[in-house]
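Internal QA ticket QA-208
Title: Verify multi-chain structure generation after dependency bump
Assignee: T.L.

Test input:
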Amino acid sequence: MKRSIAAWLERRRATSNAPAVAALEGELCALPEPLPWPPPGPVLVFAPHPDDEAIGCGGLLLRLVQAGVAVRVVLVTDGSGAGGLPAGAAQVREREFHSSLARLGVTDHVMLGFPDGELVASAPLFEAIDAQVRAFTPRWVVGPSAADAHRDHRCTAQALRRAALAHDCVQMSLEYETWGALPATHVLDITDQLATKLAALAEHATVLVQMDYARATAGLAQYRGLLLREKRAQAAGEAFVCTGRDTGFAWPTGWGRPIEPGK
Ligand SMILES: [Zn+2]
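Actual output:
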């Protein structure tokens, strides 16, 4: 894909408006880089709900385990479904969460138990997430995106960014994709991990009867696989928005900037 886009850009350069092509290439059409691997130390992953860990970064989790990297998963809410699931769903989904992590080989996890669907950007949430970062001293933190169309995800992302800024141990923040495709900066090859990722997701039977996350997750992984530098059959990827301490864990500027009139 990279090669064909480069060839297309070259043709465009020769035949059309050069500034517009430069803007397209440099800012609006940046392709994700390979995720630096392995991480320089422990990785702390936050999942607002049971299933986010498998959908958003199941492949990453398995690769961390396979690489012998210390990894802990923090489940932020109780997964009770905010009224959209039967009574007792929280207990069932807790078991499903454990089964999902077992598929991925993750043994270290923490449950914060906030009510599902009721997260707010409040001191208790900030303090709970800050305490997790302080205790685990990760080099990378991984969580949902502040751009997600779900308040629990946005509040978790906001609290995690604040905690990352407060603890110098954190070098990089990775936002994963669940409630929407993101303007990814990095992609990780999970071709060899996709089957296990989907098996982990399949453990979340309670939500899978409501939404076909399995098909959507497989499709997204295949789409992200197109962005890998090494071309492989049946390629699958997970994409992330990675930000660093040097920019205050803020998204790069310039993305989506409209092309100026006349260019
Ligand atoms: Zn979620």
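Spot checks passed. The beta strands are 33-34, 43-47, 71-77, 109-114, 140-143, 172-176, 186-189, 237-244.
Status: verified.
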